[in-house]
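Narrative summary of target 7.
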Amino acid sequence: MQRIIQRLGPNGPYLALALTCLFGWGFKAHCGAGWTGAEQYTTGCYSDAVPFWGLRDVATGQIPYFEARMEYPVLTGALIWIEGLIARLVGGAGADAGDFLNTVTLGNAILAFVVLEFMRAAGVDVQRQYGWALAPPLILYLGHNWDLLAVSFAVAALLAARRRAMVRATALAALGGAAKLFPVLILPLLGLGALFRSGRTWPERIGRATWLSTVAIVAWTAVNVPVAALAFDNWGEFYAFSGARAGTAASVWELLGQFGWWIADIPTRNFWSFVLFVGGAVTIVAVGWRRHGDRPWLLFMPVLAWFLLTSKVYSPQFDLWLWPMIVLTGTRVRAMALFLLGDLAAYFAEFWLFAGMEGAWPSATQPDILAAAIVRGAAMLWLIHGAVHDAAPAWVTRLRAVPPPADRPTPAG
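Modeled conformation, tokenized:
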């Protein structure tokens, strides 16, 4: 493997990512925009872009929130509108959902390359770069929806924190929360890092943490308040929709209910998922602090993994949130491989369940989803354990060489 990497040279990850994106496009686009015989489930080519084209008035160019309903946060809604505009310009009068799907896939491919460039600029090991460039989740989800926008913000925030650019990291995470909520999970870690940083007086620590909190609030507010002020009901649909959802097939709560182990209504699920997440997150941070207290942002990956495990909603594409964080900070290779296996199994088990409901084949059952969820969940717990107990990856602690100024000779030896 090492020989192959060396032969491909510095552009190898770019070539690998281009190939992955090509497969990702083919995986979704082969069904086109007119699904027949439940092929969107049997082949796994379902994409949110196809129903959004008509059901969210992307085809007519209506502006999200102000003219059309939108169950995504503001920055994602803006991206959907921009990609819809591009699809209509490219497709002309005959533009259809297929044009929109291709545009969405292209937009996500660009974001995938942006993430790779972030990694390369940060000096991430080339093996980890390939871990992103050849990521199976990119094939599954490149044309699935718009979560890569928030992923890009989250990766940028994590890497900014690594450079100790905490104000920038905070702003990026807050903006990521305006695309999808999960990047905000890094904000408490950044605040704790400021509050407990050694070498400063307590007034300085409190002032720094307060400043970071202000930056986060201002960044998020600047994006959201103009829309909320003019179209509050449509702006708030994402938050109302999230609270009212019962759950998804592969979530712990839905599996507990399906097998009769714990049948709970939506408010109960909301309450206990919150309690379990907070309790587990506090435990992860408390245990991991002894090793990573000087870099608390390293605990973002295990906190995010725990959030997914305890959430009442675990859609397949949520694995795309976690994978780049695993690539950047994961320490257990076998756990990473097991997670990818669980992701693949959960993806097809869930869609084949829908196929079975429509009388199509292949089909799956709830026990199949349970088996896939167990594999993925075990991998995530393994990754969480490694994240809090293992040393930081080598690239995190490695200082990049800085060339001497031009007017200063290089020291001998």
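The CA atoms of residues 284 and 388 lie 7 Å apart.
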